[in-house]
Amino acid sequence: MLCLDAAASAWAIGERCGRRLSDVDWAALRGFIVHRAPGGCVWMRRDVFEGIGGLDERYEGWGKEDMDLLLRLQLATVLHNFDDPMLHLDHPPSFDLAGNADIPWLSWEPDAPIGRLDRFAGMPEN
User: Fold this and answer.
1) Fewer C-beta within 10 Å: the chain N or C terminus?
2) Residue 84 — pLDDT band, cuts 50, 70, 90?
3) Rounded to 5 degrees, what angle do the CA atoms 22, 24, 28 make?
4) What is the pTM of this model?
5) Are 50 and 114 in contact (CB under 8 A)?
């Protein structure tokens, strides 16, 4: 995965969305490479997703949720890794790692239906 800086992210978005190109010129991008990045892009069948209880809905923003998901997947089924190139777009931090740090991995046991779109309706934004 190539983690882009702000300028490279804006350029790549302009190429793919503005100019509607099917790919971008990787030689023109600036960023750093992460090998074996946790998370990133995870594909699974719906029955597997529901079987592991979905994504732990206690996490806010991002930070640790991808590792928890992958650990629960590894316990439930066989994972296949592919070496397709991926771009990670630059974005400001959106997490309070201190808040997510208190959630132990592999502890998600939903007590209500998962993935409810109305779960946070009416809650004030931080």
Assistant:
1) C
2) confident
3) 170
4) 0.69
5) yes
